[in-house]
Amino acid sequence: MGVTLRHPQPIGRAPLRQPAAARGASRMVAKEPLSARLPKPDFSGLKRLLWPLLLVGLGFATYELAQRLIPYADRPIARVSVQGELSYISQQAVQERIAPFIAASFFTVDMAGMRAELERMPWIAHAEVRRVWPDQVSIRLEEQLPVARWGSEALLNNQGQAFAPRELTHYENLPLLSGPQRAQQQVMQQYQVLSQMLRPLGFSITALELREHGSWFISTGQGVEILLGRDHLVEKIRRFSTIYDKVLKEQIANIARIDLRYANGLAVAWRTPVAPTAAEPAAVQ
Questions:
Q1: Prior bond of 41 cis (ω within 30°)
Q2: Interhelix angle for 111-119 vs 91-102, to 10°?
Q3: Which residue, of 2, 50, 155, 248, has the greatest Cβ tally within 10 A?
């Protein structure tokens, strides 16, 4: 009889491997969540639209709030301060001029209208008007600086701009400038240049006239008239200065008129007859 012997399996030995899965079997894979597979919404267009609407709403809310608060913050004008060196107009005249505007409240007062009204005053060259919280108006004034008379009805400032105060009789000591109406600034500029050149010679200009044909005529405080002609005024005064120091200075009291319309010299008209040689036109070599 045949006998089959079985050996017992040792204790503690690792269990036998499971048989390998049959080839061709599929592996289980976890599916993506539905939210990850769906397309994400694009809110960029909505954001671009939302910001303008938000700003409009904020502006509207600010406007409404201001409208509600203004009645409580808007006060009557309690004080007007006027600053600036005033020599020709008074504080009272300024206050009377702006009185119709001050009847308004702090926010409703017409600042531009007040400034324009002040600058209509003949002696005001420039006015600056501003509000000062909570109930004041500050005014800074710059007066005209009269330099000369313009004809018989106006004065000229240092910029050659005419203005017409009521009383001109107090300014008869100012030089008298005259010429075409459009030439105010030109005459003022020539006056400033010629005055500066003649002052070192001891001459002061009391009148300067630009005549119709463009020729210039000067009257001096020393009683001497100077005819300049039309062109090269500075060059002619320089020539006169040279000849005056050398020839004419000692006889200035006897000179009535000096004619500088010559190309290379000048002619002198004497108050009383003098020696024939002195009466001849002086020439510059």
A1: no
A2: 150
A3: 155
User: How do residues 182-230 score in pLDDT, each as one tens digit?
Assistant: 999 999 999 999 999 999 999 999 999 999 889 999 999 999 999 999 9
E runs forming strands in the chain: 79-83, 124-132, 136-143, 146-150, 154-157, 162-163, 176-178, 205-210, 216-220, 225-229, 255-259, 265-270, 282-283
Q: Say which residue the tokens 């004619």 belong to.
A: 259
Contacts of 160 (CB under 8 A, 6+ apart): 184, 185, 186, 187, 188, 189
Nearest-angstrom CA–CA distance, 30 and 32: 7
* CA 242, 247, 249, 254 torsion-angle sign: negative
| 117, 139 contact by CB (below 8 A) | no
Q: Is the dihedral of CA 250, 252, 257, 263 positive or negative?
A: positive
* pTM flag (> 0.85): no
Neighbour-count burial of 102, counting CB atoms closer than 10 A to its CB (0-12 exposed, 13-18 middle, 19+ buried): middle
Nearest to 281 by CA among 266, 270, 271: 266
Residue 70: partners with Cβ closer than 8 Å, 6 or more residues away: 107
Q: Looking at 236-277, which runs of residues are DSSP E strands?
A: 255-259, 265-270
For the chain, how are helix, strand and coil distributed in percent, rounded to 5? Answer: 35, 25, 40
The span from the CA of 92 to the CA of 104, in Å, is: 19
